[in-house]
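A brief tutorial aside. Many learners find it easier to grasp structure tokens once they have seen a single protein encoded end to end. The record that follows does exactly this for DUF917 domain-containing protein. Read the sequence first, then the structure, and try to relate runs of similar tokens to stretches of the chain.
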Amino acid sequence: MSRLIDEKDIENIALGAAILGTGGGGDPHIGKLMAQQAIKEYGPVTLLEPNEVPDDALVVPVAMMGAPTVFIEKIPNGDETTKSLRRLEKYMGKKVYAVMPMECGGLNSTIPFVVAAQTGLPIVDADGMGRAFPELQMETFNVYDVSGTPMVVSDEKDNFVVIETQDNDMMEYLARGITIRMGGVGYIAHYTMTGKKMKSASIGYTTTLSMELGSILRSKDDNYVSPLDKMKKVLSTSDYGEPIGLFEAKIVDVDRSTEQGFAKGTVKLEGINDYTEKTYVVEFQNENLIAFEDDRPIVTVPDLITFLDLETFKPLTTESLRYGYRVLCLAIPTPSIMRTEKALKVWGPKYFGYDLPFVPVEERVMTND
């Protein structure tokens, strides 16, 4: 059943989506402020359940693409993504019924609310990843045969490009190059699809799940229950699975650079508390991709790897990781739609250059494999 999303809800969505965003999806604080300002100016946004969208309606995912490290230095005006949507409508000669998130990540879970508020359109409670990924073809939309183009990329200087390609890999390649030349950040509208296709090719209710997770972290419960225990309860009854606390550690080194439009790097950690004498490495490309314990892989994409501040339990994005931070590393099993053979060819560990088969994190932890 549809509901109205207000400024308070955005607080929870931004925080919860940063948990599911695996360190990526853009800065949640900036995205939160943008969405709250838009709602304050234009009014609450209608959040639709996927089954409330007519089968013949036009749905368009909207997002920011580029390196998160660049975005925090290059704050947008606020209407760039809405302009991309309107330019796509004009190019196609069709009106959009609803927008939706491309992925579940800090900024990219709230940017669609900016567009929805500014246009008066509803937003669909679903997305194309159930987490965040660094590349545009890494979408359930792509895996289940939705064309990513026509696509519009706009920047903060009112430049824009319309892209038409034969496949979604080429869409990513061209859009990445354009984004780099726009200064490292672009604002996009793409993967236009019908309501019927959206229902079969997306992961449903991720905005609601983000809102629930964010509410847990922001709540002050007199009868103290660990936030992790609350998150376990919520996630274990969702399309994901029960989160697993991989380790507690202190960050001893962060090697991070912006390359080819991505923030790439490695985080080295030393175990603390029950994990002393162990060392850990997490590698990322915008998002956390793989975690090693003493050189042994313990979780890989597409399962989720999330850092939480050990004191506040607030999620940490890859661009915010610093030497000395004490963190809890959390693994969350990804929804089954992300683990099919067809899907793993698009975003499994082999795609990112790791000569490893995908093993579900719950099996790795259980077998110590």
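Self-check: The mean pLDDT is 93. If you spotted this yourself, you are ready for the next section.
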